[in-house]
Amino acid sequence: MGFRLSLNFNFPFISSSPSEFWKRWHISLSTWLRDYLYIPLGGNRISLFRQNLNLMMVWILGGLWHGATYGYLVWGFYCGMQVVVYNLMQKYVLLLIPRNIQIFKYLIKLMGISCTFWMFALGLLLFQVHSPGELWKLILNATAGFYWNPVFGAKLFFLLLPLIVVEFWMIALGGTDSFLEKIVLSPLRWGSLSFGIGILFCLFGIFEKKEFFYFQF
């Protein structure tokens, strides 16, 4: 029809750091916050303390953009802290880890992807918080009554194993573009992809009407 829409979500769940994640997730909002708030406040041209302070301010405002509620305020603070802590670690801690050894490079990448995903997933719970009491209750419940079913754990492992293999493959090939090029050239591409998508759809599909989350803003 002649319409060209800008890319707004660019494989965010392969991000290995909070900073990379927010460059891939909701790109239009992240870009707007960067161009109209963070850069006018000084961007990266000022001291490290001022940079991190400005990041916190921008993220808190980004949380309030979603809604003027306690949960969104806490979520903005939480996301800002992730970025600030990562920036400090990158400057003072991560430089000490040897990266010239290939296996270390892959392990660091994989650990980064896993930690980034789980930090994002935990942050989604904050949307449901409406008071400090609810936040405290959420923290207590998240660390209590944990039960692990070995049978379910084994099933979950075999379901996730193909995704883990694909993730390692993507890292080994050097990124998403190389991975997609290999898939396109493979003669079994459509059958494999169709089968995998069908299995995931049957197992994890939501068969009820749901409004897209960002339509409410």
From TrEMBL:
<dbReference type="Pfam" id="PF03062">
    <property type="entry name" value="MBOAT"/>
</dbReference>
<keyword id="KW-0812">Transmembrane</keyword>
<dbReference type="InterPro" id="IPR051085">
    <property type="entry name" value="MB_O-acyltransferase"/>
</dbReference>
<dbReference type="GO" id="GO:0016020">
    <property type="term" value="C:membrane"/>
</dbReference>
<dbReference type="InterPro" id="IPR004299">
    <property type="entry name" value="MBOAT_fam"/>
</dbReference>
<feature type="transmembrane region" description="Helical">
    <location>
        <begin position="156"/>
        <end position="176"/>
    </location>
</feature>
<feature type="transmembrane region" description="Helical">
    <location>
        <begin position="106"/>
        <end position="127"/>
    </location>
</feature>
<keyword id="KW-0808">Transferase</keyword>
<feature type="transmembrane region" description="Helical">
    <location>
        <begin position="188"/>
        <end position="207"/>
    </location>
</feature>
<keyword id="KW-1133">Transmembrane helix</keyword>
<protein>
    <submittedName>
        <fullName>Alginate O-acetyltransferase AlgI domain protein</fullName>
    </submittedName>
</protein>
<keyword id="KW-0472">Membrane</keyword>
<dbReference type="GO" id="GO:0016746">
    <property type="term" value="F:acyltransferase activity"/>
</dbReference>
<feature type="transmembrane region" description="Helical">
    <location>
        <begin position="75"/>
        <end position="94"/>
    </location>
</feature>
